[in-house]
Prior knowledge:
Layout: E1 2-7, H1 14-17, E2 26-37, E3 40-52, E4 55-62, E5 66-78, E6 81-96, E7 102-116, E8 119-124, E9 137-146, E10 162-168, E11 173-180, E12 184-193, E13 196-207, E14 212-218, H2 224-228, E15 231-241, E16 248-259, E17 265-278, E18 282-286, E19 299-307
Antiparallel strand pairs: 1-8, 2-3, 2-9, 3-10, 4-5, 4-11, 5-6, 6-7, 8-9, 12-13, 12-19, 13-14, 14-15, 15-16, 16-17, 18-19
Amino acid sequence: MSAALxxxxxxxxxxxxxxxxxxxxxxxxxxxxxxxxxxxxxxLSETMVEGPAGTDFxxxxxxxxxxxxxxFLNDLISPGALKVRAEIKTRRFYGQSERGLPLYEExxxxxxxxxxxxxxxxxxPFGRNNRDAEADQLKIEITPTLSDQSARLASGMKRPLxxxxxxxxxxxxxxxxxxxxxxxxxxEAALFEDGRExxxxxxxxxxxxxxREIRLEPNERASAEAAANPLAMSLSVDQYLExxxxxxxxxxxxxxxxxxxxxxxxxxxxPQWAGIGQIxxxxxxxxxxxxxxxxGRRYELRLSVKLAxxxxxx
Length: 314
């Protein structure tokens, strides 16, 4: 898959400029899928998705010769810029084998781009077709705008998410889903040695599905062995699960010790671990049989996931 940004001409909305600073802006996404062949350009589908900042959406498009499943995670990173993380799975009829059996081209790609409200994102799920200039090419264009609708209805209730299928080409079926859940999280990690805390690390800048590193800094209560073998972990908050009143977070992580004179050499001893725990609660993992096993001490890793400052559950 290849991607590009292009400038988009569109009207501006005065309401967006005068919006209350405390009010979360609504963002409208126009998503159009085209099939291009030589000079021909056919609109296969066009969809509008609108919701508050942080609204995610999925589009499933099925045509006579291809299938597309596109998922978009969206974050407002500044008043005039978005971060869009796209995950696209495609399947396209490629031809026939020598025995007359159908052949399909399948692909799965991820792309992250930052774009302003004067730009549109162009995705080519199958890449640029350089083999045959006359062959069909699938193109997806995503154009974000600040909505002119208020965040709340006249009743004071939050305005719901909106989905409008503006066009579904003949012979094509389309399914669109949108959702709004927290994207930003604060994570704390602590190492316990025989029941006492000996190291801690934290970060309040986790984006959902985006791994970050946390280093656990030893304190004065750490044994000489633990102080000489500090830990770090690469952790991802994979999903926010609505389980009211006690919502949950799903995490996955690798744990490694830091060695070398500058503590930059990583030796993973707990790869691909995972867990689900309540927000603001503690998840515990016994790592005694993997970390400083010969010491005979009990080592426990405790994790806590919270909503980052300024992030709220709907």
